[in-house]
Amino acid sequence: MTADVAVETTPEIPLWNDPDRPVAARVDALIGAMTLDEKIAQLYGVWVGASANGGEVAPHQHDMEEAVDLDALLPAGLGQLTRPFGTAPVDPALGALSLLRTQSRIASAGRFGIPAVAHEECLAGFAAWGATAYPVPLSWGATFDPDVVRRMAAAIGRDMRSVGVHQGLAPVLDVVRDARWGRVEETIGEDPYLVGTIGTAYVQGLESAGIVATLKHFVGYSASRAGRNLAPAPMGPRERADVLLPPFEMAIREGGARSVMHSYTDTDGVPAAADESLLTGLLRDTWGFDGTVVADYFGIAFLKILHGVAGDWAEAAGAALKAGVDVELPTVKTFGAPLAEAVADGRVPESVIDRALRRVLGQKAELGLLDPDWSPVPPALEGVDLDDPEALRGRIDLDRPENRELAREIAEKAVVLLANDGTLPLARPRRIALVGPNAAEATAVLGCYSFPQHVGVQHPDVPVGIDLPTLRDTLAAEFPDADITVARGTGVDDGDLSGIGEAVDAARDADVVIAVLGDRAGLFGRGTSGEGCDAESLALPGAQQHLLDALLDSGRPVVTVLLAGRPYALGRAATESAAIVQSFFPGVAGTQAIAGVISGRTSPSGRLPVSVPRGPGSQPTTYLGARLAQLSEVSNIDPTPAFGFGHGLTYTAFAWSDLAVDAEQASTEGEFTLSLTVRNTGERSGTEVVQLYLHDPVASVVQPVQRLVGYTRLELDPGEARRIHVTVPADVASFTGRDGRRVVEPGELELRLAASSTDTRLTATVTLTGPRRQVDHTRRLHADFTQEPGPQTSA
């Protein structure tokens, strides 16, 4: 007799929930089971704010949107949750609990149990209350160090992922074309190669933590006329192809970015949000991008409101979908009822909805949001009692010591010493006059997308949430025996002259004056730098130049320190300051980094990611100008910068020598190999940044006089030498020819090894031979640097 054996069976799960099946098959099955309303619901977000007590999120109201009824929306599903942490100050643990509960509600409300993708801003750190505020992207560029940016992005991504966030709206890959633009602080610099390499490193770091990186703004936003936000961008196709597109190309190809945000701008009358040749033809068909394209906030509605290329919301929705936009952000406007009606009356084919949906659901599958074991509990709350929300308060730390240490490393590497007559580093000053509007202002280190400046200013009764020592605090710690007198002098932009006399009196009684000037970050005119805070000229805001000139007249050495979001013309201070220290919103550890450079505790190693203008009105200009953009006898305006792109001093000296070129000729599909020796000839350790610029004397179309094609950082002890080898493929000499195709042309080239765009140290003249060669997006993108140890000798 045989015993009955109980056989354990596994209930059959729908194909779309089966993680063992291919993503494409899962997505196709799910789309086939959905109604039109359920499909459309996956293609928009809702702007929410996490509950301060851990309850479900509440829809955020904005003057661009109507009220949202979640109870009415959720049975059909929801594609995205917009900024649950970045809308109002919320304790991170309670915010995570609020998001958890909301995701549970979303999943249980719909037929398919699909949670939303939660996205946040992360331009200078996770934009959440209490999270580390890192240096802004312009400081990333100043480091010339992709590795440290990669590590920072990974740390930011881990913090976001720990509380349930899936997507980050960064990095900004716009190349600076006019420094008057308010969003310069959000950019990495004025050179596409620097922007591309640093931005790609950020993408790699964020994606390594499981966060979907979103490249923005695709493309041309920074090329706006007169540096105005959301202004027309009169760029030609060659400027777009050779200056503005390469960073995006690199970040997709080498960074693995999974999302792109379209720009607000239009190119020759075609808005990016409705540009099929850009969002589908170039991005997908040519570059092979298979991620999602998300709308910049309200960008689809702007097709009707600002661009005037759509007559109603449905027409705007249809144009964006046809062009290749997949997700409407920040909230449902055109992709809701108007889109459903447009499908019903035949104006929009359902196939374009299915195309976008396939990308959205594919990404959700990759994130594990379709798996049967998906849980709304984020890693930071796993194994925690969730029934007592107040007991969770303070449990999650988003500003841990390791975060701040990384922020300190970046801030130190980003400080740029522009000028120094030997006054720095300060020895043991007895009396310091610390003057200026940013001398004792804690938030002067923060950019406009940091949480305190972006959101916190709207909640003045809520503590800032992170420790922000002022420069007064850190200088007092750096020089404990010094008598430091603080005088504000004037405000950042109030034009007040009443305090300048007091500041000058303090200066005359001091051994040295430290003038701390610059910007206040804000949004839409509430600051002097930031989104919507564009400048009419590059003169220091308010009465700061008046204050600076008065201090220069005091007879005491003046160390000019800038905490700013863009470069400013400094007038006579550019040549009369004892020293100039430039810092671009350096984050939570920024004032310690500046104090360390002033004292000599650390050696400056930053390099300018943007040129510093000589005069306030010589815009727009970058170092990437062609010959006609240079100083000439036929114009009285001198565009020559006071300090060029890539410039930065150290507390030591370096000698460059022994340039060797393996072969002075190579074919248009070949490469050159250069080598040189760099020696620290000074008495202390320091960092040199070897920059390689390409000059093409004769080309079929006008070229910039020079452009960066490679760089490397060298840290050398006194007397230490390092032999550097550089492989330069012919591909890096490519440009967009007259027929709109990228080509490498035969002819003579100069390879300039330089300490900056204005300081060439060694030049190799080489020649490309053979036929004119067409290249594409698979071309080689880098001049590769390798280092070998050199002989150790005493200084």
TrEMBL record:
Protein origin, superkingdom: Bacteria
InterPro entries the UniProt entry points to: Cellulose_deg_GH3, Fn3-like, GH, Glyco_hydro_3_C, Glyco_hydro_3_C_sf, Glyco_hydro_3_N, Glyco_hydro_3_N_sf, Ig-like_fold
GO MF: hydrolase activity
Domain Fibronectin type III-like: from-to ranges: 688-757
Chain coiled-coil ranges: none
Signal peptide: none
UniProt-listed Pfam families: Fn3-like (PF14310), Glyco_hydro_3 (PF00933), Glyco_hydro_3_C (PF01915)
Keywords: Hydrolase
Family: Belongs to the glycosyl hydrolase 3 family.
PANTHER family linked: BETA-GLUCOSIDASE (PTHR42715:SF10)
Protein name, UniProt field: Glycosyl hydrolase
Organism: Streptomyces prasinus
Record lineage: Bacteria, Bacillati, Actinomycetota, Actinomycetes, Kitasatosporales
